[in-house]
TrEMBL record:
Pfam families (alphabetical): Glyco_hydro_1 (PF00232)
Protein name, UniProt field: Beta-glucosidase
Native organism taxonomy: Bacteria, Bacillati, Actinomycetota, Actinomycetes, Kitasatosporales
Family matches, as PANTHER family: GLYCOSYL HYDROLASE (PTHR10353), LP05116P (PTHR10353:SF36)
A single GO molecular function term of this UniProt record: beta-glucosidase activity
Entry's EC annotation: 3.2.1.21
NCBIfam families in the cross-refs: BGL
InterPro entries linked: GH, Glyco_hydro_1, Glyco_hydro_1_beta-glucosidase
Catalysed reaction equations from the record: Hydrolysis of terminal, non-reducing beta-D-glucosyl residues with release of beta-D-glucose
């Protein structure tokens, strides 16, 4: 156990999941359809034609999954609430059976000594709201605040840590620009409007959570560490554009109360003259937070790519004149992502240098790797590469703490193998293997390693 990185007293070691990825029960107990139900049932959208209709059947098997968390010894479990399970059409009548499910889950966690942490939006927007414009329109942000108030009123007395949005970059740009996530749109201005309204929705949700009196409020961003492919001025300028798209579009409004000063260089006329920004929005978006959630998996190496679509009507928001290129000399996960743990340290240190005292305490709300897992003849899953990945990234996190970054927690992604969005069930991130045909759970070697690491933190 002396080989494990050690963390300060009170440091949270947890595990994370998301509603659409594990719950299943897509049409049970009054749940309405989400954009991911629609997207995954559209031919050609998801690998293998997979859907989240059943997923890990967590809706029915949550006591078994909470028992795994208890055995693991985690201090906290981060899960998301499915908006269409609570408000089936996004606004209007509340579904009591949906609230009851999450109430039972929270009580089960507390009885097991595991602190619940709730994410309010992990991408499963009610389809009825998308039909009215989705995140492109301000109404969705307003409905999100109403839904937040309902959930906080029901669970706020038992849940101490709340996350408004998970990875709004994916919602805005993979969903409305690249089209690889639900709702599958490919737009320029629509994606930028979605990004802004996600931020407005976050600000309104913070207001609602504060009014409900919850203890801790934050947001989770998937921040990327960008490296230039060469030392050329062109590649370094491409890094600035990539950093604007992936990071600054979120961190500048939330932490500094301003829009990025590089946004016109990045988006040109797509960002100018837009009426989705209103007076007072920045003050709303920049309301103080108790923590910042950071999801981190890999660095991105960027090279200049000079082409840009000349017609703004046809340009997508991610057409920013750069290209991601391979990182040489490192292992890649099953996602094709480079493994470079030290870049987690670099990202956190640079974030602290950039925002200083405006940076709240940080929780790493997701970190993990997809690997080519197989159940061995002995019935175990010997995922050595994942163990190495977790050990090295937790060591890098310890280095960030030593460098003065106020990091308070770490959540492994993910507790369970699950529906991995457009990759369907082909990619496995879990520290617990799931046989989707039988729903049998098998803790992997990484589960047992993480269990020993948690035990090693005890006095």
């Amino acid at each position: 156990m002396n080989d494990f990185p050690r963390f300060p007293p009170g440091f949270v070691l947890g595990a994370a999941t998301a509603s659409y990825q594990i719950e299943g029960a897509a049409r049970e107990d009054g749940r309405g359809p989400s954009i991911w139900d629609t997207y995954s049932h559209t031919p050609g959208r998801v690998a293998g034609g997979d859907t989240g209709d059943v997923a890990c059947d967590h809706y029915h098997r949550y006591p078994e999954d909470v028992a795994l968390l208890s055995d693991l010894g985690v201090g906290s479990y981060r899960f998301s609430v499915a908006w269409p399970r609570i408000v089936p059409v996004g606004s209007g009548p509340v579904n009591p059976k949906g609230l009851d499910f999450y109430s039972r889950l929270v009580d089960e966690l507390l009885a097991a000594g595991v602190e619940p942490a709730v994410t309010l939006y992990h991408w499963d927007l009610p389809q009825a709201l998308e039909d009215r414009g989705g995140w492109r329109v301000r109404e969705t942000a307003e409905r999100f605040a109403e839904y937040t108030a309902v959930v906080a009123d029901h669970l706020g007395d038992r849940v101490p840590r709340w996350i408004t949005l998970n990875e709004p970059w994916c919602s805005a740009f993979l969903g409305y620009s690249v089209g690889r996530h639900a709702p599958g749109a490919q737009e320029g201005r629509g994606a930028l409007a979605a990004a802004h309204h996600l931020l407005v929705g976050h600000g309104l949700a913070v207001q609602a959570l504060r009014a409900a009196g919850v203890r801790e409020v934050g947001i989770t961003l998937n921040l990327d560490h960008h490296l230039p492919a060469t030392d050329s001025d062109a590649d370094r300028a491409a890094v600035v554009r990539a950093d604007t798209l992936h990071n600054l579009v979120w961190t500048e409004p939330i932490l500094a109360g301003r829009y990025p000063d590089t946004e016109e260089e990045t988006w040109g006329e797509l960002i100018t003259g837009q009426d989705f920004r209103r007076d007072g929005d920045l003050e709303l978006i920049a309301r103080p937070l108790d923590f910042l959630g950071v999801n981190y998996y890999r660095p991105i190496v960027v090279a200049d790519a000079p082409h840009r679509e000349s017609d703004p009507a046809l340009r997508v928001a991610t057409d920013n004149r750069y290209a991601e290129v391979p990182m040489p000399g490192v292992r890649r996960t099953a996602m094709g992502w480079p493994v470079a743990p030290g870049t987690l340290t670099d990202l956190l240190v640079e974030l602290k240098e950039q925002y200083g005292d405006a940076l709240p305490p940080v929780h790493i709300t997701e970190n993990g790797s997809a690997e080519e897992d197989r159940v061995s003849p002995d019935g175990a899953v010997h995922d050595t590469d994942r163990v190495d990945y977790l050990r090295d990234h937790l060591t890098a996190l310890r280095a960030a703490l030593d460098a003065g970054v106020d990091v308070r927690g770490y959540y492994v992604w993910s507790l369970l193998d699950n529906f991995e969005w457009a990759f369907g069930y082909d990619k496995r991130f879990g520290i617990v293997h799931v046989d989707y045909a039988t729903q049998r759970r098998t803790p992997k070697d990484s589960y047992h390693w993480y269990r020993r690491l948690i035990a090693a933190q005890r006095p």
